[in-house]
Each structure stands twice: as structure tokens, then as C-alpha cells.
Give the backbone structure.
Amino acid sequence: MPNMTFAQALNDAHKIEMSRDPNIYVAGEDVGVYGGIFGVTAGLLDQFGEKRVKDTPITESAIVGTAVGAATVGLRPVVELMFVDFIGVALDQLYNQAAKMKYMFGGKARIPMVLRAACGAGIGAAAQHSQCLEALFMHIPGLKVVMPSTPSDAKGLLIQAIRDDNPVVFLEHKMLYALEGDVPEGDYTIPFGQADVKREGTDVTVVATANMVHTALSAAEKLAGDGISVEVVDPRTLYPLDEEGIINSVKKTHRLVIVHEEVKFAGSGAEIAAMVAEKAFDYLDAPILRVAAPFCPVPFSHPLEQAYIPSEGQVIEAVKKVMA
Amino acid sequence: MPNMTFAQALNDAHKIEMSRDPNIYVAGEDVGVYGGIFGVTAGLLDQFGEKRVKDTPITESAIVGTAVGAATVGLRPVVELMFVDFIGVALDQLYNQAAKMKYMFGGKARIPMVLRAACGAGIGAAAQHSQCLEALFMHIPGLKVVMPSTPSDAKGLLIQAIRDDNPVVFLEHKMLYALEGDVPEGDYTIPFGQADVKREGTDVTVVATANMVHTALSAAEKLAGDGISVEVVDPRTLYPLDEEGIINSVKKTHRLVIVHEEVKFAGSGAEIAAMVAEKAFDYLDAPILRVAAPFCPVPFSHPLEQAYIPSEGQVIEAVKKVMA
Amino acid sequence: MDLTNERLVEMYIAMNKIRTFENRVAELFADGKIPGFVHLYVGEEAVATGVCANLTDKDYITSTHRGHGHLIAKGGDIKLMMAELFGKKTGYCKGKGGSMHIADLDLGIMGANGIVGGGPPLAAGAALACQYLDSKSVAVCFFGDGASNQGTTHEAMNLATCWKLPVVFINENNMYGISSCTINSMCVPNVADRAAAYDMPGVVVDGNDVVAVCEAAGEGIDRARQGRGPSLIECKTYRHRGHFEGDPCAYRDDSELEEWKEKDPIPRLEQKLKEMGVLTDEKIQEIKDKLQNDLAEAEKFAEESPFPDVSELLEDVYS
Amino acid sequence: MDLTNERLVEMYIAMNKIRTFENRVAELFADGKIPGFVHLYVGEEAVATGVCANLTDKDYITSTHRGHGHLIAKGGDIKLMMAELFGKKTGYCKGKGGSMHIADLDLGIMGANGIVGGGPPLAAGAALACQYLDSKSVAVCFFGDGASNQGTTHEAMNLATCWKLPVVFINENNMYGISSCTINSMCVPNVADRAAAYDMPGVVVDGNDVVAVCEAAGEGIDRARQGRGPSLIECKTYRHRGHFEGDPCAYRDDSELEEWKEKDPIPRLEQKLKEMGVLTDEKIQEIKDKLQNDLAEAEKFAEESPFPDVSELLEDVYS
Ligand SMILES: Cc1ncc(C[n+]2csc(CCOP(=O)(O)OP(=O)(O)O)c2C)c(N)n1
Ligand SMILES: Cc1ncc(C[n+]2csc(CCOP(=O)(O)OP(=O)(O)O)c2C)c(N)n1
Ligand SMILES: [Mg+2]
Ligand SMILES: [Mg+2]
């Protein structure tokens, strides 16, 4: 298996799918000549031409809205929002149009489209370019929400997303773009709704998403030294959410810690905790803890930003707390 | 105490505040001549004139954005979004600008503004005019989120919201507008972050919001007949959330059911459940159940819409389940 | 454009079909048979009719909250529409959508829309697909004077011109967005003046003259079909009824309504066709009887159809 | 407008102040002293300078992601700016904002903005407050060519004209929005052409001629101050550096940059002032030395200031 970065894996997924299906087009700000601000769409313009790789004006409502319209009529758009923070200027086309059309029309529409966006803190990009907002998308029936943590998951899930007949929000944590890993060659898909056990363990289940999977894994490694066996579960898709996979792990470990970079309050972890508190309550031996960002915008200054991002230390502390 | 409807109580709050503070203005679509689609701003134009009661074009980004700008510079805007569903065309000005400015500027801004919006199903208004979206607002640091359930709470909380120096999202369930109740006269405020025990009980805590408070109350009445004593707690503000108030009730009853009309998945109840599963786990004798809308857009057809809205029967069932 | 007598009669029938439908819906709403928000098209029939006369089933339209007229003009089935308004399982959307969300993708009807300004980006997207697939089809975007102030409309027009998309923006300027008169919501006299911001043709036409609408829209549609890009056509018209059923209309003068009733597009065409000798009183009665019959049938169908079963609630969310 | 020699020299100094600041920031970014996204104003100094020469501390501006020039021209303190860019506690935003969010409300600077099109509604709102409070102050909205395609910009301009708000929209047309050239992102030759959509004055001015900018902006600002409503002034200019620091600029030709460097606003004014006998080489050197000194001081202040303490993380979220 070739080794490549997360960004290259996404690029590979685009190329494979665009080669396979002529009705896929890519659009967004700076996706063409520039190759995407994070390089994900590099080379696509050269390979597929202007018809299929469309640089747009700065016009997110129209980028998303044309994708919805084009998808309804037979194309399969893959559009880039650059930063997920920008969804505020385009949300209506996603949540009132794309997500609801099929239902409102009594089932008679298909809206196969992918909205890709970079998310997350870590590069000093401050409050309007660093958010994680997956909980917003999870709450909207009609959308699917994907959040990969490794290059190979990124590729498999993006191909899956492009082939899905529903609007899919595909969230790419920007601290992962440079992460390298082995990635299966060619056609490779990962079904939605299947959590991946990134590390097996018996004492505590840690559910983590995106870059927090790696934070959880290194915490788990350290905790192993203390004799605590941590199972790290990566849901990979937040909707559909693999409730069974998470519950099975909790049934084994009886303890749950959830880790995400999003703000804790009303974040994605709230749903996971609530779901377990409902469906696996009797298996729990300890409170469910969430390690997540505090309730403030993302600060610019490096030490503050680092304090904002959930850390290995916080995960270790939470795990020890539920073990106490 | 005079008896008035929820809509009249809101109207009263506007009048009291606008009489007190000349820097309050009201703006929105059809708030002037029409008096608001739901009549909340009726009579304000006559009483306060065009300068202070502004009919706007259909331009939600500018309505919200001008409020943010004007608030930053010294006014106290109270703007109406008509239906909360429309937030998708204006979200950026609320969540990236209003909510974050103070923090991004190192504390040096004050943005006293209220964004009022009608929410909820029940009048056959279908998928784009019936949503409850409180979870979206709760997740954004910098915003406060208010959701009253009675005429007197509506008045006290709206006056409080107008006097707050932060952006406040004020959600009015449209099935409540015609609800009558006693409302304190004149100046009357309710502090944010104080849940109200709408009915005392000892066996199960039911946390409910907006119109679901009434559903919960009537369920509680029926359950009392079965010998089950239900405590109904209305948070009234979702941010700040009265965690202590909720936990105190759970410490007493050891059982928690959460009821809201919002979609269950990643809804406001997820945060409440997760918070309790973390902070009051040891007091819980049963799984935490949520009674909420299913994962679909709001349907138009009356029987479907009625099936969508959480019912008294579902609350009774959930309470019986946690009592079993 | 030379409209044959046959096409003129077709347009006359279409306008009457909309009018009779809408008038009956008003009654049914008042009777409590139809719930929710219902925005009627009475008075504006010439716009949808004149525009859609240039389209085939392979062309697309996006509609608005005031969608019945567009749907009927584009060939929508009034039985399925009426059943939908009743919230019945046999309706266009199985009862899930209601008045504001009726769609018929087989006819290229991409849906009414409850969001003002929701349609323009969708229409540009449909046009993009037409261009991409080289189908020679076009997309038509109906939108109101109020919607022209919405940011999404600006963005869709700009992108459509940048990409030379085969889309025609049809502005239905009925002078009001609910209670907001255009004189307070925009400073230019015509929505069409805004075409200058995108360097596309902007045309103003009498929206109560179905022939004028048909010709102006035809030019824009031809232009789009030939790959020459989008255009904006503003049709000046007026709604006879309130914004939605139940609107007391306190914000406008009765005299204004009376003036516009003088310009009612249906009697205007009727008069013309009678003068041309194309229609006689008997023929007119025949047309109206047929329409009433069809409408009665549609209503019967709607009345007698079952409501959706609660078990269907969670169907149709995902493909 | 008759600009006194003194005012011309002030503008010369302001432009140089921006230029030296930006050039140093570029170096500091390259050295890893400044993190995040940094968008520099080099080449565009005449716009902010010419516009802000008409404003007092009681007037408001909204800025963009490319905000340093606006801030300096409006009187912002480069010590506090530099400290903010370093993420220090002593910075304008206590290190919480960084380059894209610097504000100084006491000077009427309503903040840089990370959202393209984020500023126009805010500027309209500030103008509304000026009108409401009858303060005779005005608001100026800086926005890019790219931002003019954003729906929020359209909405703000429309509402501003409807309400006759005292706001001036200053378009900085530097021909690109990141890699997107205006010829691909709009079909009209000038952003100012869009003023026609709102019936407000739309003016095009050489954005590299600070005197021309000052005069054109002055007219718009006077108009606003006198209660005669908004206007749109487009300043044609060019950014010398990449979109942000680190941008390889592969999307544009070097020759284009060279051409524009010929039109660099700073040498142009310098030349003029020398010809007028207002400035001599010595005086110029003196000015530049002073600016370098101030800059060095600002940098030292930034370097030596402490980072915010982690305990401050949750402060400043709410009032
Ligand atoms: C985004 C949004 N804002 C507001 C509304 C409420 N609303 C529904 S129709 C309408 C007026 C629309 O006016 P116009 O576009 O002129 O269409 P008309 O009703 O005159 O046909 C308004 C304000 C909405 N549905 N969506
Ligand atoms: C809503 C939004 N979309 C996209 C971006 C990413 N972005 C930042 S600056 C920029 C280009 C802006 O172009 P222009 O308005 O011309 O300003 P300039 O950079 O040329 O000064 C883009 C696309 C953003 N910050 N916000
Ligand atoms: Mg209208
Ligand atoms: Mg630019």
C-alpha cells in the first residue's frame, strides 16, 4: 500500500471518482488553478479541464445552491467550502434545500452531492477559521456527516461519500492534511455508519473523532504504561452514527470518555453520551466524561489556542477519573 | 395580575422597554405596519414611530448584520427573524460576528441585541417553517438562548434579554402565542440561568422546554393518577443552562426524562442528558430517556405532523419506562 | 414571435385553469379543508402562463412560496396538487410537502420553495446541469420583487452570468413582499435595472399581458438555449388577494386593487380573442365548464384520498 | 477639494507607515514570529490612506481580512497591532484576535474581519446608529472585488440606500480574490457599475493615486454626512504580495506585477511632493527614519510582551 498524506489521499479519491463518472464536477473557491488552499484539489484542473473543475467567485450560497440544483437534475457535485466556518453564509441551501428536498417532495428527489470543508484549530487561524461544527450538521435530518481521522479513512470515506445519493458533509481537520499513512490503492470504500476500533482495550472506551483520535491513541499508549487498557473507537461518520459499535465497546469496558475538539456544550459528544446513557445505562460503571473544547471562540494566540485544543493530558485525566 | 396571551406579553415587554430606553429599536420584515406576522409587534409603529420601528426589505443578513453593527456602536436592537428556519440565510452575522466579536476583540465590544424568532410545528407550515433549532444556537459560545413556555415567563425573559449586553436568541414557539396566563404588570424580569420547577414531584424529573412544558404537565397530571409523582423542570434559558437546578431535581427523583420538540439526535436534550450522565451519574437509578421529534423534516400533512410532535402519551410511556 | 390562435387559446385556458384552482383553494382554506400557509396567484396568471408557454417538460423551473400558478402552467396535475394541499397520501409529495413544497421533477418542476430567495441558486444549478450535459434545456427562475433584495438572488445572477448559464430570471413584481411595498424595499424603479450589475439583458414587461410576457420570456429563453447566457425579465403585476390566505391586507389601498383589477390579464386576453373571432361566448363557457369539471374531479380525488399513514413518517428522508 | 501641503505630507507619512509595517510583518512571518493567516496591504496603501484622511475618530470603518492598512490609516497604534500579531497579551485584542480581528472601537475601527462580505452589514449598522443618534458621524465599509459577489454585500447596499444611511462603500479592486481574477468572477468591468442596482452614485477612481482617492471618498463622505445617503467608490489597485503570506502566486503573471509596481502609489506621491518642493530627500529620510524607529519600538514592545495566561482563555466571551 502506498504511503501518502491525508490531503493526497483525498486528492486520490477525487481522481478515481472523476475518472469513473463523467457527471462528477468539482467547484469552489480556488479549487482550480490554485489546487485548493490546502492542496486537496491539486492537479484536477489539468487532468479534467475547466468544465469539471470550476473555480468560483466568492459566493458560497451560490456554490452550494448550484450544487443542489445540479444534483437534483443529474450531476454529482463535489464542492469545497474552504473553511467550515463559512457555512453561515450558505447554510440555507444546505439545510433547508439539500437536506429537506427529498422529504418535502415525498421521496421524489435524489441529491447526490458532497460538501467538503476544512475544520479545526491549531494553525493560529483564530475564531472564524478554526471551528469544528459537526454538531450543527448532525442535527439536520437529510444530511450525512463524515469526519475521517487517517489518510486511508479519508480516501475510503470520500469515495463512499461521492457515491452516496444524499447530501454529505465531509469534514477535514486541517491538522490532519499533512499526516501520512498507508492508503489502499485504487477503488476503496468504507461504508458509512461503521465505527472503527483504532485500538482495542478492555478498561475504558474512548470515542474520539478526527485529530482527537490521535490524541486519544497517544493517551492510550501512556495509560497502558499505568496498566489501564483503553479502547479507542472512531465513529468516522457522525450521521449515520454506529450506535451499536459504540455500545458494544461500552458493554465490554463499562466506562466511556468522549473526546472531540468541538466545543463541549451541545457538541457531538453530547449525543453520544446521551445515547449511551439511554441505551447502555446498565452497563456503565462510571459517569460519562467528555473532553472537548471549552465554551469560547477559538483564540488566536498560540498558548491560548493550545489550551483550547483538548490535550493528551486531559484525556489521561478523564480516563483515570472514570477508572477511580 | 392581568391575564394576557403569550403574544400580548411579548408585546407588553417591547412597550415597556422601548418606553424606558430610547436607544432600543425594533426591525424586521413586517414588524411595522403589519405588526408582525404573529402580532407580537402590533401597535409599536403607532406608538414609537418609524425611526424606532423599522420595516425592512427581505434581507435577513442585513437585518441581523445591521443590528450587530448598530449594537456595537451603542444602540440596543431587537430584531425579528419571523421564522427561526430562516437563520440559514443570516447565520454568519449572528455566529461569526455577533457571538464572537467581543472575544475576538479582547473583550472590548458590547453587543446588546435580541434576535426573536418563531419556531415549532403544529400549524401545517411544513419543513421550512416549523423547525426548532435551539441546539444550533446553544453550541455557539457568545450567544444566549432563551425559550419561554408561558406568557409571564415570556415577558420577564424578554425584558431581561433586552437588558442583557450580549446577543440573545429568543425563541417563541408558535403554538404558544395564543396561550393565556397571568402576567405581572410593569417592569418584570426573570434572571437567565434559573430553571423553573413548573410542578413539584418526587419520582421522576421531566425537563421540558417551550410548548413541551405543557405536554409534560398534562402527562404529569395523568401519571399522578397512576401514583407517579413527576417533577417538571423548565430550564427557560438553554444557555446559560441551570445545571444545578436540573441536577438538584435529579438528586431528589433519581430519574430523568427530557422532552423537547426539536429533533432528538444532537438536540438540546443531548446536552442535558450528557451533563447529568457526567455530573449526577451516581444519583441516577435508570437510563436517561429523551422524548423528542424523530429524525426527519417536519411533515405537512396533519396526521404526520401530529405524529412528529412529541405527545403526552410518549411522555407517559417514557416516565413509566424509567419507573419500571 | 407569431403566436398561433391555438397557442393563444391554450394560454387562455391555462390562465383560467390557474384562476379557478386558486379561487377554489381560497374557499377550501376558508372552510378549514386546507391547513398551513397558502399563497395564491390570482391576478398574476399571465406571468407563469406566458413564460411556461416557451418551455417543454425537459426544461426546468424553480418556483416560490406562491407556486400553484407556476406548477399549473408548467403542466402540473391539479389532482395531485389538490391532494397535496389536503395533505393526502396521493398528493404530489405524499402529503409531506404541502402548498409551499410541491414539485414534479418529471416535468422539470424543481419545487415551490418556502424560503424567499431559495430558488435562484437552485435554478442556476439546474442550468449548470443543462449546460454540462449539453441538453439544450434551460432553467427558469421565478422570483418576487421581495426576493430580489435577498443575497442569494444576487449571487445566483452573478454566477449565472460568469458561467453563461442557460437560465432566465423571471421577476414577478407584484409591488409587495407581504406588507413591504417596493418603494420602501428598493430604490430603483425596476428590478430589471439590476441586470446592469451583471451585464445581462434586463427587460421590463407588462406582466398582465400574457402575449407580451410570452414574447419577452421567449427571447430570454431562446438566448439561453443558444448558449448566449442568462437574462432578467421583470413582469409588472399585482396580486388580487392577500399575501397569504388570512391576510387582512391593511397595508394597501382598496383603490389600488381596483385599478389593477381593471388590468386583470384574463378578461384582457378574453376580450382580444373575442375581437379576433377566435373565441365565442359559447366556446368560453365550454372551456370554463371543462375546467370546473376537472377541478371538481381533483377536489373529489383529494377529498376521497386517504391521509398518509403514520408509519410513513420516517420514510423519504434518505435515498 | 484643496489638500494643503500639510495634509499631503500626512498622507505620505501614513502610506509609508503602512508599507514599512507590512514589509516588516512579511519578514516576521517568514521568520515564524507571526503565526496564522497574514494578508498584507503592500501596493494598496493609497486607498485606506486617501479614504481615512476624510474621517475623524468619531467615524466608523469596517475592515477586511486585509486590515492592517485600514487600521493604520484610521489611527491605529502599531505597537498594539504588532503585539496582537505576535499573539501577546498587550495586543489590541489581548492576543485573542490576531491579524484578522484587530479592532479599536475607541477609534471607530469595528474590526478586521475573517469573513469575506462580513463587513458590509456591520458598516450599514454602524451608519444606522449614526443616523439614529443624529451624530453626524459616518461609516465607511472597505471591501474587496471578491466581496462584491457575496450576497451580504448586496443586501447591505440595498438596505443602506432604502434607509439613506450615512455609509460609504469603498471597493478595493485589486483584480483578484485569492486566485480568482475579476474577469472570471464578474461580468461588469467595474464594481462601481453595481451602484446602478441601488440608485446610488458609483464612482471609479485610480486607487493608486492617493489624492484622487481622497477627493472621491471625500465627496461620498460629505454626501453621507449631509444625510444624502450612501455611495460606492471603486478604487482600482493591486496587491504586490501574494494573497496571504506563503501564497506562491502561480495564478498571475510577473509582468502584471511589474506593470503595477510602476504605478506604486508611494513613489508617485513622493515624486509629486518633491516636484512641488514640499519634500526634500532629507525630509524623506527623516520621515522614513522616524517610521523605522517607531516600528522597531513596536516590534520590541511586541517581542518583550508576555503571552496571555491560559487562565484568560474563558474571559471576554460574555459581557
Ligand atoms: C428567507 C425568508 N425570509 C422571509 C420569508 C417570509 N416571507 C414569505 S413570502 C414573503 C414575501 C415575498 O415577497 P416577494 O418575493 O415579492 O413574493 P410575493 O409574495 O410578492 O409573490 C416573505 C417575507 C421567507 N419565507 N423566507
Ligand atoms: C465567506 C468567506 N469565503 C471565503 C473566504 C476565504 N477568503 C479569504 S480572503 C478571500 C479573497 C477575498 O478577495 P477580495 O474580496 O477581492 O479581497 P482581497 O483579498 O483581494 O483584498 C477569500 C476567498 C472567507 N474568508 N470568507
Ligand atoms: Mg412581491
Ligand atoms: Mg481582491
Notes: The mean pLDDT of chain D is 98.
